[in-house]
Design a protein that fits this description.
The complex is a heterodimer. Chain A is of the alpha+beta class. Chain A contains 10 helices and 14 strands. Chain A has helices at about 25-40, 55-60, 90-95, 110-120, 140-150, 160-165, 170-195, 200-215, 275-295, 325, and strands at about 45-50, 70-75, 80-85, 105, 130, 155, 220-225, 235-240, 250-260, 260-270, 310-315, 335-345, 350-360, 360-365. In chain A, the strands form 2 sheets. In chain A, strands 7, 8, 9, 10, 11, 12, 13 and 14 form an 8-stranded antiparallel sheet that branches. In chain A, helix 4 runs parallel beside helix 5 and helix 7 crosses helix 8. Chain A is elongated and about 70 Å long. In chain B, helix 4 (about 100-110) crosses helix 5 (about 125-135). Chain B folds into 2 domains: about 20-150, Creatine Amidinohydrolase, Chain A, domain 1 (3-Layer(aba) Sandwich); about 155-380, Alpha-Beta Complex (Creatine Amidinohydrolase), CATH 3.90.230.10. Chain B has 10 helices and 15 strands. Chain B is globular, with a radius of gyration of 22 Å. In chain B, the strands form 4 sheets. A 5-stranded mixed sheet of chain B has the order 4-3-2-1-5, sandwiched between helices. Chain B has a 4-stranded mixed sheet with strand order 6-7-8-15. By secondary structure, chain B is α+β, with helices and mostly antiparallel strands. The chains are: A alpha+beta, B alpha+beta.
Chain lengths: ~375, ~375
Amino acid sequence: MSFVRVAILKHGLTVWDKALVPPSEVERRLRAVRSLMEQNGWDALVAYSDQLHCGGVGYLTNFQSYEPRHPALAIVTATAVDLIPKVAARDINYIKLYSWADEVHECEEDLATSLGRVAELRDLKNAKVAFDGVREAPAAVALAMKSVFRPGAVSDAGDFMPLLRRTKSAAERTLMTVAAEKAESVLASLSAFLRPGMSELEAAAFADYAARSEGCMDTDVLALRRPDGSNRNPFPFAPLEPRLFEAGGVFNVYLALQYHGYWTEISESIVIGEPRMAQTDGKRIARAYLQEALDESLSGAPVSDRRFLWIHGIGLDREEAPFTSRSHQADATGDVLGVHVAVERDGEFFVCGRSAAVTEAKRRVLA
Amino acid sequence: MTTATIHYERVKEIVIDAAELSRRHELMRSSMAKAGVDLVVVFSTPLSAINVHYAANYDLFGDAAAVVVSLDADPILYVEEQDLERATRVCAIRDVRPCGDFAAVCGSLLGRDGATFAGLEWVSGEFSAALSAWAGREIKNGGAHLLAASLIKTPVEQELIRQAAAIADAGFLRGFDSLEAGMPEYVLAAEMEYAMRAKGAVDNFGLLSAGKHNRVIGLPTSKPIEAGDTLIFEITPARLGRNYSAQLCRTITVGPAGKKLKDCYAIQEEALEAAMALVKPGALVCDLTKAQDDVISRYGFADYCRAPYMRARGHGFGAGRIDLSRKNTKAIEAGMSFIIHPNQYFPDAGYLALGEMIIVTESGVERLCSLRPGIFEKEAAA
C-alpha cells in the first residue's frame, strides 16, 4: 500500500538553488547516467514522471510534476537533456526558470507528439532506448514509446534509475539534513501549540502552516492508527480526523515535509498537557527503540515487526529504494531512510521516527 | 518557533449522507441507461482521487479504491484492507469491502456486456493490461457517465462550493492584511493557507507571484516581496476534497497602482463582466471565452489572447470539470459551477489576475465572491 497522498497542487517545483544543488552535483548525476547508459548500450534514456512518482524526472531536470494532469518526460542522450512537461504553453517559460534541462519543450497536444519531435531533433528514431517508468506510466505513454521508436528498440530501464537515485551524494545529504532540521522545528512548534479541546484537524492546519512558514513545499500530517503488528499492515499511520484532544491524551503524529524537492519525515508522541510517569516512560522507550533500530546490523535480515518498525528509503520521492519494511531490502551506505517505531505501554502507544542517513554501514539521524 | 496567528473557526460542517450519494448515483444511472450501460466501475488512484470521492465521499488513502455503480444493485465501495475500518466509518455506502487485488476484482466485473470503467486514463499501462486480461476483453471507458452526473452540482455540492468560495475570500483578505514588504512569497502563501485551513479547507490550489512585471503566475518562491511589486493570485481552497473547490483570482499592488496597470485591469474587469452577462442555461461555453477575448481585443491586445500570454478563460474543478475554450460548444446548464477568469499578460502591465467563481442558476448566475473586483492597493511602508 502506498501512503503517499497527492496534494491538489504539489509545491515541489523549486527554483534551482545552486547553493543547495551545485552545478557539479548535476554534472555528477548526468555523468553517472551516461556512463550506465553506455555500459548497457543505450543511446537514450526516457524517464516518465507524474505527481505521484516524480523523483526520476526531478533527479534529471529539477522538474517535479506539480499537478495530477501534468506528467512529464525527460530524455537524456550523450549530449543533451530534454524535458517535456505536459503543461500549458503559457507555463513553459516559467518552467525554464526551474529546470536545468538543455531544452524544455511544449506539449500542447500529447506526450507522443512532443516525444516524436525530440526524437527527431536528437536523431533518435533508430536509437536503442531505455524507458524508466514502465510500471507507472499510463498505457497512452507506453503506446507513445512504441510509436516514436522503432519496434524492439525500447527496453525497460528496470532498477537503473531507482538504484542510481538511492545512493545520496554529499550535496543531497546536506540538503536533506536542512530538511530534517526544519522538521524538528515544526515538531517543536506543534508540541507547544497543542491544547486540550483542539482537534486533530486544527493540529494539522497549524503543522502545515509551521512547515510552509519554514519554506517547505508539500506537507502531510498523519496520526498513528493502532498497529496490529501483522505484515498486512506495514504502514502504521492514517489520515487525521475531527477527534478532539483530551488532557493527558497522546497525539502520535507523523509529519512528512518536502524542502527543495527532498522529503523528510518525523514522528513523535506529543502528550497533551502534563505527561504521566507512564507516558514519560513510553516516550523514552520509543526513543530507545528508535536508537536500537538505527543501531541494528545492516545484514539484510528480515525486519522484525515486534516493535511495529517501519523503514523505507526517502528522497525526491516519499518512498523510494530501499523498500526495507515492504520488501525486506537491506539498506546500504549512501541510503537515506525514514525510520519509525511504535511501542505499547500500559495500553497506550508511543511513536518515534526520524530521517536517517546510512554512512559507513551505520544509520545516523540526520538532524 | 512558529506560533499561531489565526483564530481557528471552521465553517458549518456539511454531511455527505446516503441520500446525497444516491442522488449522484441516480444521475449516473440516468446517463448509463441512455447508453445501454448497466455497470460502471468508478476507479481512483492517488492521482485521480476525485472520482471515488464523488461517488462515495471516500478520501482515498492507499494505492486505489473503486465504487461499483450498477442499474440494478446497491453500490459497493472497495478499499485497501488496511483502510477498511476508516472507510466504513466515513462513507455512507453501506457495502464497503476490502480488496487485495483491484485488477482481479474490477476486471472480473468488466467481463460482462454493458460493463464500463471510469478512470482508465489515470491507470498505469500494466494495470490496464491486467484489467483486460481478467475481463477477457477490451475495457470500455465509462468516464462519460461520471462526467454527465458530476457536471451538474447537487444542492449539497453547491453549498460546499459556496463555503469554499467564502474561504477563498477569507484567505485573500488574510493575505492582504498580513502582506509586508520584505516578506518572502512563501510566507505570504503560508498565512493565506493557514487562514483557509482554519476555516475548514482541506487543501488549496494556490498560485502566487510577485514582481515589477510578472510574465506568468506560478508557485510561491523565496523571492522577497518588494515595494512597487504587483502580486497576482489564484486561490483555490477545497472543502472536503478537490470536487468542492472554489477559485478566486485577484491582484494586489504594494504601493499605489500605476495608470497603465489600472487601465489594463479595467479591461479585464470589462471582459469579466461581458462573460458574466452571458451566463444562463442554454448559452454556449465557447461564447463566454469569445466575449472575454472580444473585449480585450477591442483595446488592441488581440495578439495576447493566446498562449503563452494566457492559458484559459475559465474552468471548473474536480470531477465534472468544464473548460472554457473557443472549441467547447457545449451548452451551459443550471447547476454547473466554474470560474470565469480573463487572466493574462499585458505588455504594459505584466500578467494580471482577475476571476470569480459562479454557479449557474435557472435565471442566470450566482456570483460566489464577496470581494470587490478592482485592484487591491497595499501601503508600501515596511
